[in-house]
């Protein structure tokens, strides 16, 4: 790949998140070209390709992955397809960016990591919170010792609306929602590994779907090997908007991250004060979503390792799987030492 040429990136999966990432690749990143899009749903890739002026759109995902003109592949498909696509893209010699979760089993995660390692291609995973200015600053301060030793951590995700409970696959709250919080807690407790997990969950938003396996509300307690204790919390429906926050309490201070307010505007009127809330993830994390792909492109161009790796994805997944086991067994679950420390 010549460093003079724009990076040619293909994107797989043109749904809600894929459309945002495609637009970033097409319009928001200098030195990057959205060269192809693929989605098996008839017409989906073509519609997005036409809108963004992308030269190639196909329903054939394999064809995109094996296109010799592409330097990198961005995977934004449903969770259960990720690991296989990562493997295929690595085998085709492409740099790979994959949305979270990179895999839904540890065996799959290991295969994906091994495939990228063997092919010698970068593999980055979509833990976008690491690129949010507040969470990033918190990490840097903690790593520099600003709050001493982390003792209590918390991270929460509350989605604004559970639109269609029938379409939520089992365990989504752990594998797709809380996976962000598990990564955040690891990232904000640098160098520590999760060793024990205890989870409670229920269907409080849609109790009528509980017997079909829906869990829409959850709290997970995590013990780390440096002694810190963390909680991760999620709900699929916060009536006031999209709410993501974090807190780290240490021996020498505390840091808090996240703000539900869309802007710094507060309105004062006869009925009191009000502020507009963040409506959804692409609102709150617009810049972080762009920054993670900019960072991916930079790592592909420069050959430096990506900042958020397959091993990070595996470590967060191991917490999610322990939480699921805890729900099933009703007790705490120990996590084995990671194979990829
Ligand atoms: N990082 C974040 O904050 C964030 C936010 C939203 C979604 N996501 C992740 O992005 C991924 C996609 O989510 P979404 O909300 O865009 O879903 P979506 O349902 O809107 O889109 C998924 C797309 O993938 C396509 N698809 C299905 N099977 C495929 C296959 N085998 N190969 C290629 N394409 C296939 C579908 O046709 C659809 O267009 C998920 O993994 C989700 O967890 C991440």
Structure description:
The protein is of the alpha/beta class and about 350 residues long. The protein folds into two domains: about 5-130 and about 290-310, NAD(P)-binding Rossmann-like Domain (Rossmann fold, 3-Layer(aba) Sandwich), CATH 3.40.50.720; about 130-285 and about 315-335, 2-Layer Sandwich (Dihydrodipicolinate Reductase, domain 2). It has helices spanning about 15-30, 45-50, 60-65, 80-90, 105-120, 135-145, 170-185, 280-285, 285-300, 310-330; strands at about 5-10, 30-40, 55-60, 70-75, 95-100, 125, 150-160, 195-200, 215-225, 230-235, 245-250, 255, 265-270, 270-275, 335. A seven-stranded mixed β-sheet has the order 12-11-7-10-9-8-15, covered by helices on one side. It has a six-stranded parallel β-sheet with strand order 3-2-1-4-5-6, sandwiched between helices. Helix 2 (about 45-50) links the parallel strand 2 (about 30-40) and strand 3 (about 55-60). Helix 4 (about 80-90) packs parallel to helix 5 (about 105-120), helix 5 packs antiparallel against helix 10 (about 310-330) and helix 7 crosses helix 10. The relative contact order is 0.15. The site of nicotinamide-adenine-dinucleotide has 23 residues, from helix 1.
């Amino acid at each position: 790949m010549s460093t003079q040429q724009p990076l040619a990136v293909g994107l797989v999966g043109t749904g809600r998140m894929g459309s945002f990432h495609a637009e970033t690749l097409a319009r928001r990143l200098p030195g990057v070209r959205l060269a192809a899009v693929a989605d098996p749903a008839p017409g989906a890739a073509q519609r997005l390709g036409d809108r963004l002026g992308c030269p190639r759109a196909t329903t054939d995902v394999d064809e995109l992955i094996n296109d010799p003109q592409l330097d990198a592949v961005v995977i934004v498909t449903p969770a259960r397809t990720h690991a296989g696509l990562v493997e295929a893209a690595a085998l085709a010699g492409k740099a790979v960016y994959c949305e979270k979760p990179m895999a839904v089993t540890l065996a799959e995660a290991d295969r994906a990591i091994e495939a990228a390692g063997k092919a010698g291609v970068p593999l980055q995973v979509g833990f976008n919170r690491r690129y949010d200015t507040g969470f990033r600053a918190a990490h840097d301060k903690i790593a520099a010792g600003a709050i001493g030793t982390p003792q209590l951590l918390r991270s929460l995700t509350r989605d604004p609306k559970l639109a269609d409970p029938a379409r939520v696959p089992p365990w989504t709250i752990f594998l797709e929602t809380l996976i962000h919080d598990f990564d955040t807690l690891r990232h904000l407790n640098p160098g520590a590994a999760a060793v024990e997990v205890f989870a409670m969950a229920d269907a409080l938003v849609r109790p009528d779907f509980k017997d079909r396996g829906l869990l829409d509300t959850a709290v997970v307690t995590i013990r780390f090997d440096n002694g810190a204790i963390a909680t991760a919390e999620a709900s699929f429906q916060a009536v006031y908007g999209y709410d993501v926050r974090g807190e780290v309490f240490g021996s020498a201070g505390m840091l808090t991250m996240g703000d539900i307010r869309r802007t710094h505007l507060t309105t004062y009127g006869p009925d009191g004060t009000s502020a507009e809330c963040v409506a959804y993830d692409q609102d709150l994390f617009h810049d972080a979503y762009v920054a993670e792909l900019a960072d991916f492109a930079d790592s592909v161009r420069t050959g430096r390792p990506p900042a958020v790796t397959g091993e990070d994805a595996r470590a967060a997944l191991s917490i999610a799987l322990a939480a699921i086991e805890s729900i099933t067994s009703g007790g705490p679950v120990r996590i084995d030492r990671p194979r990829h420390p």
